[in-house]
Amino acid sequence: MRRRPCLSAPRARCRALGLRALALGGALVWALAPARASAGPPVVDVGPVVDLGLTGANWVRVFPLDPAAGTWRVFFTGGRNYQAGVLTQSTMALARSPGVIIDRDDLIDHAITRCPDGSFLHVASGNLTEARDDSAWIFRYDGDDLSLIGENTIAEADLTYVYNDSPVLCDRRRVGTFVHPRGDEGAPMGAFHWVDEDLAVQESAAVLPGPPLPGSSVLWDAERSRYVSWRAYGDTGEFWVLEFDPDFALVGEHWLKPYPSGVKVGWPQGLARHGALWFVLHLAEREGVRYPSDSGDIWLSIFDADFALVQSVPITAYESGSTGGHRPAMARMGDQLMVTFDTELVPRAAALTLDLSVVGDELVEHGAPGFHGAAPADTGSPGDTATPAGDPGDGGTGEGGTGDTAPAVLDAGPDRRIAVGEAVMLDGESSLDCAWTVVSGPGGGRFADPAAARTAFTPAAAGTHPLALSAAGASDTV
Q: How far apart are CA 222 and CA 372, in angstroms?
């Protein structure tokens, strides 16, 4: 049977393998090159909006694929199935390859993200009753060939929650999906459903405050060790930013009205953190312009770490009664930010150019080590466990293991962002003899004591520095 990589790997728990144990934890140190003394705008150029030639498709989502070739992985719906293709930036041409990856006619709304191991996690909603948005299914695809390596049911014909437009998480702390309150008919507040390695729902946590979750985005903020949810109140034109601890307890709340009363923001479905800046891709309704339902112009709003507006980047400016954008998404590769959306089932894209001296040259993207933040905390939630070896049914012992030995604990601690030359304390934990090593990165760096779980590391150059905390033993790794 094919072995499946752990969704949330690397993980801090491993079982003994024979007489010796091996565990491997991972942490990232992002060393940022100093910004200019008088930094300019983060976005310096907006390319033309291009029709991708996929009439009848929507839910376009984009991820970096090959920086050398300038290609992007694109997911989209065609009818009600789910497809994938490759976008070449130099020509802005989309090739449908491999094409259909899920051939079903009951999928409606979609969310997809990339996990730390490179695989993709996809949640799709559907209607099985007249109440609508009462069902959802979850799929997992190989990061290279997009073959299906897991699927399960989140809910079917469930009138407790609403399952459309659900943000999905697959990071080192949480794997699962958010669901929305159904109000008087069901749950009064939203929730997060954790899933295990088989994508089965194992636990749910209420997320307060409740609405409005549809069309929102959630991201881990490694600097503040919390999840940040960006939502929008279209009636008032405000962003509603909520900060949650790793267990989704509310720890902060911000109401942002970055634009005059004549502009209303909505559907902030594109969200990224680049350096100290928040990039929020959303709909914008300008006063006096008539848009089709649930649509608007596509704008990028950039905020600093304290949620003050740094730059506003209008990408479209539709005339009243013409059309409007839906379902915005974006991804970064180097100094390029690719934006995708659709207008009345016509997928479109635009490439934006970033000033790396302002946003930093770190390439922490979907699928890179440290995706969306920190190494796992020991919360005991299903999303934090990992199978160190073998098939799911082997009890987590690996080949030749007994499964009777107490777990060995190894935790590399959270990811950090620091300046070049600055020392950062690595807050690791190990029940075994361990050693720190630099996995990769520009210029390397220096450990104060590589044999100590808790030690300091000083990077020698700007960039991303994956660090490994390991304990020697058998040949299998987490």
A: 8
Closest CA relative to residue 22, chosen from 455, 433, 440:
433
Predicted confidence band at 184 (pLDDT cuts at 50, 70, 90)?
A: low
Q: Give the separation between CA 257 and CA 102, rounded to whole angstroms.
A: 40
Residue 426 tokens read as: 């690595």
Contact partners, residue 303, CB within 8 Å, separation at least 6: 256, 258, 277, 278, 280, 309, 310
Indicate the residue type of 306: D
Residue 357 DSSP SS3 = helix
Angstrom distance (rounded) from CA 35 to CA 228? 25
Coil, helix or strand at residue 96: strand
Cα–Cα distance measured from residue 242 to residue 251, given in angstroms and rounded to the nearest whole number = 8
Cα-only R_g, the chain: 22
pTM: 0.73
| DSSP strands (E only) in 374-422 | 408-411, 416-419
Burial of 157 (0-12, 13-18, 19+ CB in 10 A): exposed
What is the Cα–Cα distance from 119 to 51, expressed in whole angstroms?
28
- Between CA 355 and CA 359 the distance in angstroms is 6
What is the DSSP code string of 123-191? EEEE-SSTT-S-EEEEEEE-TTT--EEEEEEEESS--SEE-TT--EEESSS-EEEEEEE-GGGS-SSEE
Comparing CA positions, the residue from 466, 463, 272 lying closest to residue 363 is 463
Q: Specify which residues 256 forms β-bridges with.
A: 239
What does the pLDDT look like over 70-129, one tens digit per residue? 999 999 998 778 999 999 999 999 988 888 999 998 899 999 999 988 999 999 999 998
Residue type, 311: Q
CB 336 within 8 A of CB 309: no
> Tens digit of pLDDT for each residue in 414-435?
565 665 555 666 756 665 678 8
Q: Dihedral through CA 107, CA 280, CA 253, CA 27, nearest 10? A: 90
How many Å separate Cα 171 from the centre of its chain? 7
Q: H or E segment at 457? A: strand 454-459
CA distance 63 to 274: 15
Report the phi/psi class of residue 246: left, alpha or beta, with left for phi > 0 and alpha for psi in -120 to 50: alpha
Asked if residue 278 lies in contact with residue 254, where contact means CB atoms within 8 angstroms, the answer is no
Q: Which residue, 323, 314, 316, 322, is CA-closest to 343?
A: 323
376 contacts 83 by C-beta, under 8 angstroms: no
What is the C-alpha to C-alpha distance for residues 376 and 171, in angstroms, rounded to an integer?
8
Query: In 10 A of CB 261, how many CB atoms?
Result: 9
Torsions phi, psi of 15, nearest 5?
A: -95, 160
The amino acid that residue 23 corresponds to is: A
